[in-house]
């Protein structure tokens, strides 16, 4: 057997660079790195040697580098990914939040934190966590509950099995998620004689599991027996590349489609079968169809509580729940009849067994809903009060074309955008599995790297901006253009509204309700400009539309700051649905007592099998 002498770090980098997609691209585009002790001498030297064969990019924060990598993978519908490396200690634990985000959203991410010495000679090293009762523990054990595969590399030859296992997870449609290879720093630098065949390029194909014949027949029979079915389209539709098949299936069988956060834009909003968003942040048309449905057909969804109205949305006493999912864990949730299969394959096989079947679609309800959206998002009186988030969304919608992708993560905007944004196919990117404040700007950069041909509009509030904004500087340095619409409502406006809806007093969310000696005067324009972005403050909706248009000519990020109402929420009329947020049973506040009575009445409507 022919061998080559390399350090473990050199071997890892060479192997990673040789892992290919079916389209002939590297599965891992490259690696984000902040070096420190634990990865600079070993892995850092190996990455320098690799050069453009496996590119390295420097970020500003380990968590946000990982957020950019996650958005890149989501932008590629899980068909490509990125790696992220950090030093030991705080560099590594900074990535734990991002690992959890990738885990919840089922997105591929390779994390390579440095670790302490496997040989333990200099223990305890700088930043080492010591467990008094377990000598094998390090800070990197924090990753174990938030990754799909964890391995600690304590010998060079362990990479021969660990690396293929890591890729098997990241490219498996059912088990896809983040991987952590905790790389002991002395092992990174240790030499080993590697089989040359280990570095032969390999193509990773993403399988399409076929449905079980008995499950397929059972689900087809349930659909044929339904009079008012509805499809809940989740992110699995997009990851499967099943968008066109969903459109064909829904049209052929006249089954309306309602959307989750992850599934929104699998069908363009203009598609006649698309009734819009479902659940807590759902449209009137979608929620009416869901309430009346006698068969709920979930496709690639986890049935998260926002989608189901905390399991009070599907109100028909006769309704049956069916879940098409590549992951058996998800397919059997809440007593669903499972169809474990790839979404595109499942729709093809189901359609073949439903010849002649047609459900019903409430076209007038859809038209009425879209008309209401237009009215709600219309430009306000320029001399009136501060604009609402809905009016901001309307302005951006009018100023962009079908190529625009709206993205965000936390606060008011995810619900408002799901409710009101009218995307073309693929025109929506929301991190709402973990709803992680601070994902927005780094995520916008990662998304633009994945989809350079499309206009990326990042919606973020002032609260999320304050949590994590430094990757603006990275985007400027790398000339990655996107537009940030920063709505300033002077605090955490979304949670302030929820706090009061639950009967609580306004407290510790808006700056005016915080224990501070002076109200802050934060100049977001000056701050963003100091990082190199083009930044501007606008007052009117008309000015916002003009600045959105002007941003397209730049090769750096644009930050547009607009002050918005802190009190007005995104919903209106019959839109939206109850969300189960626990209200105190005992309180001296009459507002909480009244909210608790309302809570009990709503909770009594919950229908849940298990």
From TrEMBL:
The gene is iolD. Belongs to the TPP enzyme family. InterPro entries: DHS-like_NAD/FAD-binding_dom, Myo_inos_IolD, THDP-binding, Thiamin_PyroP_enz_cen_dom, Thiamin_PyroP_enz_TPP-bd_dom, TPP-bd_CS, TPP_enz, TPP_enzyme_TPP-bd. Its EC number is 3.7.1.22. It comes from the Bacteria. It comes from Paenirhodobacter ferrireducens. Residues 216-350 form the Thiamine pyrophosphate enzyme central domain. Gene3D superfamilies: 3.40.50.970, TPP-binding domain (3.40.50.1220). GO terms for cellular component: acetolactate synthase complex. Transmembrane segments: none annotated. This is 3D-(3,5/4)-trihydroxycyclohexane-1,2-dione acylhydrolase (Decyclizing).
């Amino acid at each position: 057997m022919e061998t080559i002498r390399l350090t473990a770090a050199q071997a890892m980098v060479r192997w990673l660079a040789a892992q290919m997609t079916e389209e002939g691209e590297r599965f891992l585009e490259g690696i984000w790195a902040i070096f420190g002790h634990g990865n600079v001498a070993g892995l850092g030297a190996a990455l320098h040697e690799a050069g453009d064969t496996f590119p390295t990019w420097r970020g500003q924060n380990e968590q946000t580098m990982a957020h950019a990598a996650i958005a890149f993978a989501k932008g590629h519908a899980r068909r490509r990914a990125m790696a992220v490396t950090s030093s030991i200690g705080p560099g590594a634990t900074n990535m734990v939040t991002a690992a959890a985000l990738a885990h919840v959203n089922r997105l591929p991410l390779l994390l390579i934190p440095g670790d302490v010495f496997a040989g333990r000679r200099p223990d305890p090293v700088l930043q080492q966590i010591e467990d008094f009762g377990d000598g094998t523990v390090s800070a990197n054990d924090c990753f174990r509950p938030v990754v799909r595969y964890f391995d600690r590399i304590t010998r060079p030859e362990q990479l021969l099995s660990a690396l293929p296992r890591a890729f098997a997870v990241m490219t498996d449609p059912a088990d896809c998620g983040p991987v952590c290879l905790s790389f002991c720093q002395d092992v990174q630098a240790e030499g080993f004689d590697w089989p040359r065949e280990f570095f032969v390029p390999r193509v990773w194909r993403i399988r399409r599991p076929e449905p079980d014949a008995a499950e397929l027949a059972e689900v087809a029979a349930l659909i044929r027996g339904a009079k008012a079915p509805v499809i809940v389209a989740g992110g699995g539709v997009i990851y499967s590349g099943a968008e066109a098949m969903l459109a064909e299936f829904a049209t052929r069988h006249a089954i309306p489609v309602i959307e989750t956060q992850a599934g929104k834009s699998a069908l363009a909003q203009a598609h006649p079968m698309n009734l819009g968003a479902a659940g807590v942040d759902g449209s009137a048309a979608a929620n009416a169809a869901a309430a009346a449905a006698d068969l709920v057909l979930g496709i690639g969804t986890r049935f998260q509580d926002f989608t189901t109205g905390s399991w009070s949305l599907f109100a028909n006493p006769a309704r049956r729940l069916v879940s098409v999912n590549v992951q058996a864990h998800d397919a059997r949730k809440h007593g669903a009849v499972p169809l474990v299969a790839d979404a595109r394959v499942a729709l093809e096989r189901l359609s073949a067994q439903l010849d002649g079947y047609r459900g019903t679609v409430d076209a007038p309800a859809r038209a009425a809903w879209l008309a209401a959206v237009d009215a709600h998002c219309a430009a306000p009186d320029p001399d009136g009060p501060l604009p609402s988030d809905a009016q901001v969304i309307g302005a951006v919608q009018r100023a962009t074309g079908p190529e625009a992708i709206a993205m965000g993560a936390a606060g008011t905007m995810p619900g408002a955008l799901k409710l009101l944004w009218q995307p073309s196919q693929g025109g929506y990117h929301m991190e709402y599995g973990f709803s992680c404040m601070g994902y927005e700007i780094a995520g916008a950069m990662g998304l633009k790297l994945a989809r350079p041909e499309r206009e990326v509009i990042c919606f973020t509030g002032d609260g999320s901006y304050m949590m994590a904004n430094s990757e603006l500087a990275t985007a400027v340095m790398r000339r990655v253009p996107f537009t940030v619409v920063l709505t300033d409502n002077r605090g955490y406006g979304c949670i302030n509204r929820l706090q009061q809806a639950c009967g609580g007093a306004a407290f510790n969310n808006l700056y005016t309700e915080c224990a501070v000696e002076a109200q802050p005067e934060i100049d977001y324009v000056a701050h963003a400009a100091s990082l190199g972005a083009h930044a501007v403050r606008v007052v009117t909706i008309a000015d916002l539309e003009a600045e959105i248009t002007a941003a397209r000519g730049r090769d750096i990020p644009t930050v547009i700051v607009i002050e918005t109402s802190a009190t007005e929420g995104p919903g209106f009329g019959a839109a939206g649905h109850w969300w189960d947020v626990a209200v105190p049973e005992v309180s001296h506040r009459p507002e909480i007592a009244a909210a608790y009575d309302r809570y009990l009445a709503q909770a009594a409507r919950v229908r849940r099998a298990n």
